[in-house]
Automatic annotation (TrEMBL):
Belongs to the DedA family. Keywords: Cell membrane, Membrane, Transmembrane, Transmembrane helix. It holds the Pfam family VTT_dom. The chain crosses the membrane at residues 12-31, 51-74, 139-159, 165-189. It comes from the Bacteria. It comes from Methylomonas rapida. It is found in: Cell membrane. Residues 48-157 form the VTT domain. This is DedA family protein. It is a multi-pass membrane protein.
Length: 205
């Protein structure tokens, strides 16, 4: 990442385009870290205040359009993605059903919460939203709100505190990730228990 920061700083006039382009690639599940792009753009903006609006717009629009690309992949290509090894580990049928259930239950809260969860969970959310045929307008508006909250929060923190806040954010993300796993496990076992109880009830009848 340090090499990228140095390169972008040496070509500051192209920085917004570079960051925007890299984030678009992330929408195709190419391993480009949104968190990394937020940190780089905020760090460069702190040293070059004149480019602050350009860099924020670039990272915000890049992140948002990346989400729409990932959603579009799932919606347009559909279940065929599940037969491609590159995507199958991200979007299993079980995960699609589970996240679809979260969308039905909690709506926009799922996207807001998911955007703060690291380790590739974000793209899994967007991909499965498309695979689950979530309404495009609903997804676009919900993700716009979620993206606004997350990018504004992290960009502001990185811009004002830089390296000082990285450790705290990593720890917070780890806590959120563990909490997300706990919630997922709870609903998984609860759903299985309900099915088992229903099955036993039917067998008795």
């Amino acid at each position: 990442m340090s090499e990228l920061v140095i390169y972008v700083q040496n070509h500051i006039e192209y920085a917004p385009y570079i960051i925007f382009g890299l984030l678009l690639l992330a929408g195709f599940n190419i391993p480009v870290s949104e968190d990394g792009m937020l940190f780089i753009s905020a760090l460069i903006a702190s040293h070059n205040p004149a480019y602050l609006p350009h860099l924020f717009i670039a990272v915000f629009m890049g992140a948002y359009l990346s989400d729409l690309i990932c959603y579009g992949l799932g919606r347009i290509v559909g279940p065929k993605l599940l037969h491609i090894r590159f995507f199958s580990s991200i979007a299993t049928q079980e995960r699609i059903d589970k996240i679809h259930d979260y969308y039905q239950r909690y709506g926009v809260i799922t996207l807001i919460f998911g955007r703060f969860v690291p380790f590739g969970v974000r793209n899994g959310l967007f991909l499965t939203a498309g695979l689950g045929q979530m309404n495009l307008i609903k997804f676009a508006l919900s993700d716009l709100l979620a993206c606004t909250i997350s990018t504004t929060t992290f960009f502001t923190l990185y811009y004002n505190y830089g390296d000082k806040v990285i450790g705290a954010i990593q720890k917070t993300n780890a806590v959120i990730f563990v909490a997300a796993l706990g919630i997922a496990a709870y609903f998984y076992f609860r759903r299985n228990k309900t099915r088992q109880t229903h099955s036993e009830h039917n067998s008795v009848d």
